[in-house]
Amino acid sequence: MMKRRLLLAAAAATPLLSAADAPVQRLALAWRLADGREQAGLLGLDWGARRIDMLAAWTLPSRAHGLIADGRGGFYAVAARAGDWLLHVDAAGAATWARQDGAWRFNGHLLLHPAGLFATETDPRDESSHLALREPRTLALIARLPLAGRDAHQLVAEPDGRLLLALGGLRRWPDGRKREGAIASALLKLDPTTGGELARWRLDDPDISLRHLAWSHDGQRLGIALQAAHAAKERRAAAPLLAVFEGDQLQLPVAGGPGQGYAGDICAAPGGGFVLSAQKAGQGLLWQPGVPADLTRIAELTDPCALHDGWHGGERAVLLVAGRGVARWQANGAQMLAWPQPLAPDNHAVLV
Prior knowledge:
352 residues, mainly beta, Methylamine Dehydrogenase, Chain H, four-stranded antiparallel sheet, globular
């Protein structure tokens, strides 16, 4: 039996307007098995029967990072930084693979856009970042657009189609390991056709890296999960976990921790806010615009990271993927399911 303690916090729930909850949710996730194999696949979350079923799995060449739904019942998975592969699994379970040409390496994130499938990339020969555009079904490369900066990470689209991209700014060796050097992190606004930079925002603290992005449910603000890289351990531990981009302003609403300066993932939460996974602190944290200076602890879990927002019982819910299973949190309760076998989940997950 899993040892866990879920802490419930008051949060405004948004009513469900259409569609019933699926009896079994299909979660696309990547994980490492006890024998060291890296896999991605589909898990069935059966909340009524209180179990997780392994529906399908594909063995990977290396560790995965970002996963996104394809909008047709399938999903995409891409290698973590310094990896060279991209995978699409359609609704029927057919897999299409692509491998990088030459020295190019993926940075672990994808975006399905009207223009095509975007991926962040690095040329390890000079640490330069690029935005690659691929054909969504064949994964064929269409274009590679240079970016001003290094360590490009997650990206999202604005309603008008323009892109917002988190430039992590960290220096890395060709194998993806961090190396010494000044951090040059920023939030970029890009033209999706040319990759041209339209605007750039930075935090005052140069030792904080902007990593993962999520729109609020009302579309009014973008939440940005942060990871601190201060040389002093005490400064890292006290660093903020969340930046909020709203009305062309990038702000730090919460001055510091908890969280040991490391937010693994972020997703939308009820009431126009966000949930963050404080992976190193073993906590799920809720931020709401009505109390902008506070982070409320909603869960204590072993190694929580991947987050995904959804529905349950006609109300908004958040899935927290952790070392021992998947927790579902919402304003009126919580539940947790154990993994069907020993596995170590990776950083991101998506319902398909």
